């Protein structure tokens, strides 16, 4: 800086104050400024190398963003407890800053320039990206570099009432905003504001807000907002200029500007190659590879011509280098003249024509969802992978978002352009393109509370000839539908181009690689039929009039609708369900007071559920209810876990007159505990067992053993469903050849008397689920081989719980005595369970309990017995 001391300048916009400070920090940097918005502070420095790198054919500008975790009072979560590689958000802010800054530097500058933004303070209230962008402009002006600034950046958001606000907070974006734009621009010599960059997207819940009456971000609405934001950009530019005038820019000396070629070299190349280049570009039948091959021949001949007969004041190396750059400019001039003067595009299309489109889904049938989208020679394969919410990405950044459940990753390998090159971690461009498509798709995704999956879509560019990022939007949208994700609508993307010559703007639809490379603008628009979900503008000009952008938006909509037709022909609605290979997620709501019963003492019950079913289970509390999320690898596994959770938390109580093929789960001197329904046990008194044996018994083991099935009838329901009076009806055989193990018309476990399990509501009715209902629907013991054939205690295919180390009948487990019984576990005392019931002795035997271990509020032995009995049923 040119002056010592501290300088400060404030500018107020929409009730928000932006402060610029300089003169104290980073005094050895070429330019340094601290920009403040609310409680967010960013230190920005701009420094240039002393010597130019004249051998480079481009301007070596580097933008860096350093997210210091101390800015939010946090210690990094990595093993080394220090910041490492930049976060994805930091990389996106780098790109956001680079795009308007780069075209504003003087052409021909070859000194290495580095702009570093260090976030030194934030309370996760205001986004720091626009703070860094304005600071980058101001610090560059203070550095004394040849820079046609200032440029200004504004975050501009449309609220659900249709109003727009500048610099919205994170809270305002989440709660009220429908559409969100970052717009950058500069003030031209005539006082008009020219737009340099736009990055915009609909908010994640925009679809829901629009359905609830909020205005949709249509082309007309967004186009008008671009015009309305210009006074704010002008105000910020004037504030920066006033600050520089007060502080004074550093005297950095002269910076040499290098020309790519002399006029003499260009004239030589143009005269030698222009006609041949024009002929090649006029041949609309050529493929990209064929055209490049022919141009390479002309390029080499042009270079040889200039090297042999070029300016004498240049050596051969300089002649060759300048001739190569001059040939590229010759190509550019030819392509632009064909478009502007003749209205001819190199593939024969008109300005608003699309290339040939094709769309296909299910190309990889064993994946969770897949789609192939092709537009001309651009081909993108997108593949969906579904996971549980546990598979979401955990974020450790300065943004308030700490988790992502939808990821879109974009890859563009070198073979997509017919080249050999580096393959590995994604470059900044790939990260940026992936994030753009991700933002385009998020607004149409289902809400998390109704769709409990994590989603990752990978878009691989297999062939590239322009507009690959928008091709990935189309392919990814179809892959989501193919995977059964209930998206609100299909999303398509289109890339628009612009050529400005002789005061005339020509807007191009669906630009290909050459038009992007030689054109002046890349304008990408994505969305469903009714509004825009993502928009991105990059320009090589010093600014584009807002009315030109408005016209481009309307032209883009026409193209987007045509693309949507092709995509909807391939798949118009999401699949009815996810692929067989996808994980299964079930969500069940349970009473708040049942959360403890599902979890159990020290997590014993939920651990047992996980062990028995193989599913992963999460229990949370939301809005005064318990929410259980079950993650499983198959539909059967998920249903088994769901049934077991329902048995604990939403039990279906037996009713008088119902008959059950009950499984003996425990024997005591005064009777046997039998499992009636999942989670509900009852006591069959020894007097009933005596009927079964035909003589008076002293011990239940003399009549039944654990795992045996007996036919019982509920004679009475007592104590509000906590106790049941059971009567022995007959022994449940292990099944016969006819599978009629119930003795003809008797229907245990509900039968006709209960109206079947159809009345079991949300549990889906065991009959409808197929495989867990009444014994008839389950194939009875026919399919299970009967408990007697299973050996009861040995448990068939599972190798017997004897081998699993104590999960067989109680006898194999050592009974409750080996487990410490209810007395030794002491678990129910902690739950307030057996304190009320006592042990088996203290509660006066299970007569006092009414024999129903699973019906009370405690979650101890009752719940354990419940889950064990379901395990037997499943086997």
UniProtKB/TrEMBL annotation:
Functional summary from the UniProt entry: Involved in mRNA degradation. Catalyzes the phosphorolysis of single-stranded polyribonucleotides processively in the 3'- to 5'-direction.
EC category: transferase
Localization terms from the record: Cytoplasm
GO molecular function: 3'-5'-RNA exonuclease activity; magnesium ion binding; polyribonucleotide nucleotidyltransferase activity; RNA binding
Protein's UniProt name: Polyribonucleotide nucleotidyltransferase
Keywords: Cytoplasm, Magnesium, Metal-binding, Nucleotidyltransferase, RNA-binding, Transferase
Signal peptide: none
Lineage of origin: Bacteria, Bacillati, Actinomycetota, Nitriliruptoria, Egicoccales
